[in-house]
Design brief:
By secondary structure, the chain is of the alpha/beta class. It is 35% helix and 22% strand.
Length: 281
């Protein structure tokens, strides 16, 4: 006999960018979002960090934010799932590192660097990337400490670059990269060269693992971000949130269902929207 009164458990998953979204764009402070973060925890929701940052960087932030959920690194090029998390039993057998199962999507950084070097040689593109800089040089560009910059340099599936050529050359560069099975994603400060994957793909992949791990649950996804590299994730979530970035010359305007525009930038805006969503859902 079918139990028609059965209703699946609803579980919330928050996918969030970090820089200029959950973190202040200069100080990297998230304390204005503490009340919403506490609400996420009290509701038993998952907080999935989704960033251009590396595994090493995100491991630190997961510890500081006390989240035991998986996280998405390098704009979707890396997915890290804690060995202790239920999702780990529904994912492919992958290398383990610091208590996480690491899934790599797209292309290896070595292949990306070879392609960038070839394009520089053939077309004379003016650019510099993380592979060209020491931790000290990266720290001067970004405001990161030497230790933080060293972690930012440990990339597996992407290469951030600083474009130093004109707009016409950038169009040519993007075309040549795409012809070689790669793409360029525009982030807040850097362009990111990577394989054919992104945060939206990684979000979809994780949602499939969640559904396999919790077959009697119904998942509602919330995605928050501020830049072009967040667009797919924001528009494909059940609720997408645009956090205004004061460094942008034009606001990020998106089309899609359930798109919400935060009234403030950074963690203050994050706090306002997430609190209101959790009170209403």
């Amino acid at each position: 006999m079918i139990n028609r009164s059965f209703k699946p458990e609803t579980r919330l998953i928050v996918f969030t960018d970090l820089d200029a979204t959950l973190l202040h764009h200069h100080s990297y402070d998230w304390t204005p979002a503490i009340s919403a973060l506490e609400m996420v925890e009290s509701k038993g929701a998952e907080l999935v960090l989704a960033s251009s940052k590396t595994f090493s960087e995100l491991w630190d932030f997961a510890e500081k934010l006390s989240t035991q959920a998986p996280f998405i690194g390098e704009n979707g090029g890396v997915i890290a799932i804690p060995n202790s998390h239920p999702l780990s039993s529904h994912t492919p057998e992958e290398p383990n590192h610091d208590g996480y199962r690491i899934l790599t999507n797209g292309l290896s950084r070595e292949k990306l660097l070879r392609t960038i070097a070839t394009l520089r040689s053939e077309f004379g593109f003016q650019l510099e990337g993380f592979a060209d800089w020491s931790a000290h040089e990266l720290g001067k560009l970004t405001g990161l400490s030497i230790a933080q910059a060293q972690k930012a340099l440990r990339r597996q599936a992407s290469e951030p670059i600083l474009w130093q050529d004109n707009a016409k050359q950038l169009v040519l560069f993007e075309r040549e990269v795409e012809l070689r099975g790669m793409k360029v994603i525009r982030g807040g400060q850097f362009l990111h060269v990577m394989g054919q994957t992104d945060k939206a793909d990684a979000m979809k992949q994780l949602l499939e693992y969640y559904e396999a791990s919790f077959p009697q649950a119904k998942f509602t996804s919330i995605a928050l971000g501020d830049s072009e590299n967040d667009v797919g994730m924001i528009t494909q979530a059940d609720f997408g949130v645009v956090i205004p970035n004061p460094k942008r010359t034009e606001p990020l305007v998106l089309e899609g269902r359930n798109i919400i525009y935060a009234p403030q930038s950074g963690p203050a805006g994050w706090n306002t929207v997430v609190s209101e969503l959790f009170e209403s859902l």
